[in-house]
Amino acid sequence: MLGKMSLRSQKRLLLFSFVTVPLLLLVTFAYYPAMELIRLSFTNWNGISADKAFIGWANYKEVFSNPDIFGVFRNNVAYFVVGIVQNIVAIYFAVVLNSKLKGKKFFRLLLFLPYILNGVAVAYLFGYVFDTTSGSLNYLLGQLGFDKLAETSWLGNTSIVNYSLASIGFWRFMGFNMVIYLAALQSIPNDLYEAASIDGANGWQKFFYITMPNIYKIIELNLFLTVTGALEVFDLPFVLTKGGPGGASETFVMKIIETAFQFNNYGLASAMSVVLLLFVIIVLSIQRYLLNRKGD
């Protein structure tokens, strides 16, 4: 059939296929589920019954009025704070490992290696690290003479549990961010640095006036990943603490899953998912506005 078609018609068919197939997949696996999620958020569906009674905005009122639901967002703040620090450290290592450092390929591999490990395996690994009685962290602190810190319950203290969990994400994802920054740094022409050196610029001046402007879009991308990751974190607290102690490490995604599968309230869980989606969009829009305004 294609042999009987003109070259121009074949090109049109090919372009039409390349556009139509991705759009169909996008509608099937993204847009339609999103629309169905929004529809279910206005019902009291229990996930089993065929009855999906319309209850209006009741689920959304419950989300915003119940502190046990919306207040869980405060537990995600630690992941955002640690994520910002993670990006700063990643930029530092990217700059260092982009220089003429001996053995830099080995150090790049060493820092990137945690990213390729399975998330659940990493969680179990740090379960032994943070163990209060026989954990390697407290043992190391004790050997260094920090006896009080060596008695700390890193996953049992409500004030530090989220930062302890976020530090695992720091260890795992810092190398990934470093590689992204490293790729951006390697795309900057060396002529710019050489010209700056001739003009008498020091290392800090080169960094702030050459490096930072050229990786600004990559910083924006990594901050996007950091914000979405901080708001949607699930695996680490689920595996290590189950949201404890006393719900201090429960994240919003954990609350959604608990509402849906433990309490069989899929309507409320759907509303919570929509609120999370809107919250992510709002936060990222503010971030993009501030970064673009600063970049201009």
Automatic annotation (TrEMBL):
InterPro entries assigned to the protein according to its UniProt record, in alphabetical order: ABC_transporter_permease, MetI-like, MetI-like_sf
Transmembrane segments: 12-32, 77-97, 109-130, 163-184, 221-240, 268-291
Keywords recorded for this protein, A-Z: Cell membrane, Membrane, Transmembrane, Transmembrane helix, Transport
Cellular compartment(s): Cell membrane
Recorded topology in the membrane: Multi-pass membrane protein
Residues in ABC transmembrane type-1 domain copies: 72-287
One GO term of the biological process aspect: transmembrane transport
Pfam family, one: BPD_transp_1
GO cellular component, one term: plasma membrane
The family this protein is said to belong to: Belongs to the binding-protein-dependent transport system permease family.
PANTHER family, alphabetized: ABC TRANSPORTER PERMEASE PROTEIN, INNER MEMBRANE ABC TRANSPORTER PERMEASE PROTEIN YCJO
Protein name stated in the entry: ABC transporter permease
Source species of the chain: Paenibacillus oryzae
